[in-house]
Amino acid sequence: xxxxxxxxxxxxxxxxxxxxxxxxxxxxxxxxxxxxxxxxxxxxxxxxxxxxxxxxxxxxxxxxxxxxxxxxxxxxxxxxxxxxxxxxxxxxxxxxxxxxxxxxxxxxxxxxxxxxxxxxxxxxxxxxxxxxxxxxxxxxxxxxxxxxxxxxxxxxxxxxxxxxxxxxxxxxxxxxxxxxxxxxxxxxxxxxxxxxxxxxxxxxxxxxxxxxxxxxxxxxxxxxxxxxxxxxxxxxxxxxxxxxxxxxxxxxxxxxxxxxxxxxxxxxxxxxxxxxxxxxxxxxxxxxxxxxxxxxxxxxxxxxxxxxx
Length: 309
Prior knowledge:
The chain is mainly α. The protein has helices at 10-35, 38-56, 58-63, 77-104, 108-133, 138-147, 149-152, 160-180, 184-200, 202-221, 225-243, 252-264, 281-296.
């Protein structure tokens, strides 16, 4: 095949998409049979609720996105924003599938086909970027991006994770184009990708933006890569920790500490402990070693709770 698909033949694209769709179906089946549905089936059922709202009150269905009624419900603006983004995350999946349900008969497994036909592009754009920019084995990269079960499985169920990769790669590939030539279309697509990331995982978007700025410094201003990234993220860390020294409850450190407390209050079968965060900068420094351990190394052998972990 031509280089337009970066060396991927049609049967490889079909195989990768088929495997991803299969993983999505297996994901749904496992969580329905063994875990009483979990988030993926809750999202599917929510799409059915949204379908009924569309039938009964189409004006409400489409205007719920508008933030007019989202603010003033809670004691602080940060909480208003947090819960509005939470609603948007659910609607980002549920409302499109409320419409698709008319075609699929609200069948979870048929919906999975539609879902993975979209989020598959996140994997493809990642493969495309890696094969163009790095000297890697196409076969090894194909397996790692499209066929590695621990990745594909968790990104194929009807939940936000697959969309997160989709929007992440949309931002990266569009920003790469902007570095070559700024166009109105690329700018709009970049904003759409960032909006998707903010809706799905606002903290993830906040961490990504400094990286994009450092990338711009390297490409457009000729800064050395290590200096650019270390400098940009170093300044961000200082600003973040320094905000904890300011009076009031709206410091960046306090917002993150509140997020941790809210997350800890959720029901969960598996927990990894982390020291409690406060607005004081030192609490983040104390928690850092344990956080690195949790993210990169756990579960330890013998610590996993079941085959999926």
